[in-house]
Every structure is written in C-alpha cells, then in structure tokens.
Write a structure and sequence with these properties.
3-stranded antiparallel beta sheet; 15 helices; 4-stranded antiparallel beta sheet
Length: about 550
C-alpha cells in the first residue's frame, strides 16, 4: 500500500511530505507506516486559513520566496540597484521625470524656516518672543543664504536641499558631513559636505560583520557610531584599476554624534524597516518595468522612423534603371554586367533605387504608427505611478480630464509630497538649523538663557515650522473663494491660507501690505473688489 502524498480537508488540499524511510517502514510494517504517516499529516495540517500560504496551490508554487531581514534583502542588490537607477535617470524620460517632479514639488525653491519657540516654557512675552524669533531667522539666513555653507563653496542651503533629496531618491541614501572650520567670508564655522552613497563602505572593502555593515559601525543597540568614507569614488574611471589594490584607497571614519548627542554627520535615507542600515533607490520597485517600457518605446520609435523612410525599388527588363558603376581602370567600359554597385541602395528619404535585372519590387507594411501603443503605455504608467505614489496625470504631466479629476490627482500627489517634505525637514533641515542656532548662542550672537544647561529649555528655543512652495492651483478663483470661507468660519488663519495658496510667511509680507494700503488710501486709489461669480466646470454642468 503506497502512502498518499496529498490529503484533502474540505476544499483545501494539504501536501504531506514522505521520506524513503516512511515508505520502507510502510512496506515492512504497515501499522507502523500508518502511524508515521498520521504524525506527518498532523504536522502538515498545522497552518492558518490563508490560501495565499497554501503551497499546494499552483499560484503559490512559482518563485523562490523566503523571509529576510532588512539588510539581507537590500545590501546584496544595492550596488546594482544604484547603477540601474542612475542609468534610468540619465537616459529614460519617465524615470527622469519622476525624480525631477519629486524634487520640484517637495523642495522647489527650498524649505524656509519659521521660528516658533515655546513661549510658556521660556516665560517670554509675545513681544520678546517675536523679537527673538526674528533674530534667530536672521542668523540662520546669514549662515545659509550663501555658498559658504557648502564645504565645496558651490551652493546655498536651499539648493543643497534639492541636491541631497535627489541623491536620496536616485541612490537610496546620502551622507552629510558637518565639519566646522573658519575661512574668509564665512561668519559661521559650520559647513555641509555631501558625500555620495558609493563612498560609504567598509574599510578595505571587507565583508559585513554584526557591528559594521555597509560602511556603518553600530553600537549594541543598532545606533550608528561611525561612518567610513573612502577617499575615492569606486566608480571613478581614472581610479577604477586601483580597486584591485586596496592600499591605494584610504578610509576616513566620521563620528555620527558628539558627546552631548548632537549629530556630527547626517545619514539621509527613507527607513522602511527596523534594523535597516542603508536606503533603497526610489525607482527600485519599478526598475524592470521602466526598462521594458523604455525598450518598447525605442522599438516603436525606430519602427516609425523606418516607416517614414519610404524607398521605391524600380524593376526594368533591360536594366536601364540600374545606376551601375562608372568607367574606371578595373572596368574601362563601365559594363554593368561585370559588377553590381550597391552604393546608394539603402533606405532613404524619398529615394528611388534602380535594381539589377531579374529583381522585383518588395514592399513591407509595418502598420505604423501603432494605434495600441498609447493605451498600453498609459496602462503601464498607471502601475508605475502606484508604486511611486504619483498619479499618472502628475507623472506624465498630462491633464485632460475634468477639473474635479485633475484636482483629485494633484491633491493625492500632494499628500505624498507633504510626507516627503516633512521627512526632509526632520532629517536634514532641522538638524542644520539647530547646529547653527547653537553656534550662534555659543558665540554670543543670540541670547538664550538656559540653552546650554537644560535640554528642555534648549528644545523650547529651537522650535520651528518649515514651509515650502505652495501646490499648483487649477482654478485660482475657486481656491481663493474657498480660502475666504475657511477664514470667515474661523477654521483657518490667514497665515495658513497664505502658505497653502502662495507659500511663504504671512508675517513677512505684512509690513509691505500695510505700506501699500496706506499709500493707496492717501492717493484715493482704493478699489472695491467685485465678488466673483463662481462658474461650474463642464463636468458639473
């Protein structure tokens, strides 16, 4: 009696694994074999109620899947993912557009700080708090609205935000070193040095250990202690041959935190799992899909080009249409029968090519342009957009539907942009602000009692609000009317609506508004703003 390999329980089939020993036991002693089989069947029956975990189903039998920790899933493929992501960013319109859209919408012209200290903790009057906040913002601008903040003396802080965010998207992560040194023209010592992800690696390219992973040395809790940075980029073609000789490389360890806990280097990446050491490129889930879509697009473009290069081949009985060779030393008479010159016999723009005797006309109809290309392209872009959290209208910059649908796409994308903006402000902008204000307090440029002695008081002095460019408006009239209603109902403020509609700080423009209103009133130029009649869009009609 042979042992069954599958036991059916209700509508679910349970596969029972049997070994050679089970079969021998069943043959030698059927009673013992049945007992062994019952034990294995009970073990196989121990499972949940998810069909997705039933490996006896055909859909669950394909592909090798196993659970891995964050670093095991990421680090072996990280170099390849970075290479593919950089290649797509340089050469693929869809990938390049997705990255640039993120930078434009999240960073734009740069996130701006608004100091918001805790007045109750600091026991300050409103006037005192306002004065200190304005002074802190002036000091921060003094330090960051100049290329001196950049260790390479190239960009102010607003532009460095965009570059750092782009590298996080394209490479997965970036290291920001925060050295302090003096140089002419620089009021503050703090500098920012952006270090690409490929330069963060283990000394001498050694394998990872429990406490040193992908260039990051950790403590027993998993917190970073040091970052190891190689002096040459591994992808530098001038030094590529040196990879075989690690003695030509040198590594500099950068401390992650100072003794008081202040960051000395910022490792920027979007952490999605506990224990994750390095970041993953933004395009990682859709790299293969974008590659295939790019190849398909290239093939369609090439087919359309070839179709446009229509060539007519003419057949002649006497061969007079042949543009045979001219007379030369090898062929004094120019006899076409001696040799056939194929010069010029290629596809061209409106070309007419004569063929030798015995040849006939052959034409190919490739049916281009392909009418199915655009629907298929849009269908794939929708899937790419879902993975990247970008509606396909925003991803391809194409708004042809109704006002309501277009606005829904923009607002859905804006939720994602706000999350990314919050991440950038918390991980990059706020630590830089805190370092600059701390330096200003130590240097005596700002007076902040208790700043250096109490962590609670220090946090109260460092409260901020980071704002950026406002979202797009499809119909500004409707947006303004909605803002007026929110203000009238006391569910929003003018500062909030200013940030939502135009971006920037409402208090910063108040002096200019007062100045303009006073001038208009003195010159009797005040105009009465007529109410706007709200028009319904085509869909609402």
């Amino acid at each position: 009696m042979s042992l069954p390999s599958v036991v059916k329980v209700g509508s679910k089939e349970i596969r029972v694994p049997t070994t050679l020993a089970d079969k021998i036991a069943d043959w030698w002693n059927p009673e013992s074999g049945q007992k062994r089989f019952q034990v294995r069947a009970r073990q196989a029956l121990v499972g949940g109620g998810y069909d997705g975990a039933d490996k006896s189903r055909r859909a669950n039998q394909l592909g090798g899947k196993r659970e891995m920790d964050a670093d095991s899933a990421i680090l072996p493929d990280l170099t390849t993912l970075r290479e593919d992501s950089q290649h797509l960013s340089r050469n693929n319109p869809l990938a390049s557009g997705a990255l640039k859209t993120n930078v434009t919408k999240v960073v734009g012209t740069g996130l701006q700080v608004k100091s918001q200290i805790d007045r109750d903790v600091l026991n300050l009057t409103d006037e005192q708090a306002d004065d200190w906040e304005r002074a802190a913002e002036r000091e921060f601008k003094l330090a960051t609205d100049t290329r001196e903040i950049d260790a390479e003396r190239q960009m102010p802080f607003a532009l460095m935000q965009g570059l750092a965010f782009l590298r996080v998207l394209e490479d997965g992560d970036i290291l920001v070193n925060m050295p302090r040194f003096s140089r002419p023209g620089s009021t503050y010592k703090l500098k920012l040095q952006l270090i690409e992800a490929a330069r963060l690696c283990n000394p001498e390219f050694k394998p990872d250990t429990d406490l040193q992973v992908a260039g990051v040395t950790k403590d027993k809790h998993g917190a970073p202690e040091k970052y190891h940075v190689v002096n040459k980029h591994p992808g530098n073609l001038r030094h590529a041959f040196l990879r075989k000789n690690t003695k030509q490389y040198s590594w500099q360890p950068l401390k992650a935190f100072a003794r008081n806990g202040s960051p000395l280097a910022l490792h920027l990446y979007d952490k999605t799992r506990p224990g994750q050491t390095r970041g993953v490129p933004y395009l990682a889930p859709v790299i293969e899909l974008i590659k295939q879509l790019g190849r398909y697009t290239d093939a369609e473009v090439m087919a359309a080009v070839v179709t446009g290069m229509l060539t007519v081949f003419v057949y002649s009985e006497d061969g007079q249409a042949d543009f045979g060779p001219a007379a030369n030393q090898q062929n004094p008479t120019g006899d076409k029968a001696q040799t056939i010159d194929q010069t010029g016999m290629e596809l061209g723009y409106g070309s007419i090519v004569g063929l030798p005797d015995g040849k006939r006309i052959e034409t190919v109809d490739p049916n281009r342009p392909n009418q199915a290309f655009d629907p298929f392209f849009i269908a794939i872009v929708r899937q790419v957009g879902m993975a990247l959290e970008l509606p396909f209208e925003v991803l391809i910059k194409h708004f042809t539907s109704s006002y309501s649908a277009s606005r829904a796409a923009l607002e859905d994308a804006w939720d994602y942009f706000l999350r990314r903006r919050h991440w950038l402000a918390a991980q990059f902008c706020q630590p830089v602000y805190e370092a600059i204000i701390t330096e200003a307090v130590i240097a005596g440029r700002l007076s902040a009692p208790g700043f250096l002695t109490s962590s609670r008081v220090r946090k109260a002095w460092l409260g901020t609000l980071w704002t950026g460019d406002a979202p797009n408006q499809i119909d500004p009239v409707k947006e303004v009317e909605a803002a007026k209603r929110r203000i009238a109902l006391r569910i929003s403020t003018r500062a909030e609506e200013r940030a939502r509609l135009l971006g920037g700080d409402f208090e910063a423009i108040q002096p200019q508004i007062i100045k303009e209103e006073k001038w208009l009133q003195e010159n009797d130029l005040l105009e009465v703003v007529e109410p706007v009649v709200e028009q319904k869009d085509d869909e609402e009609k």
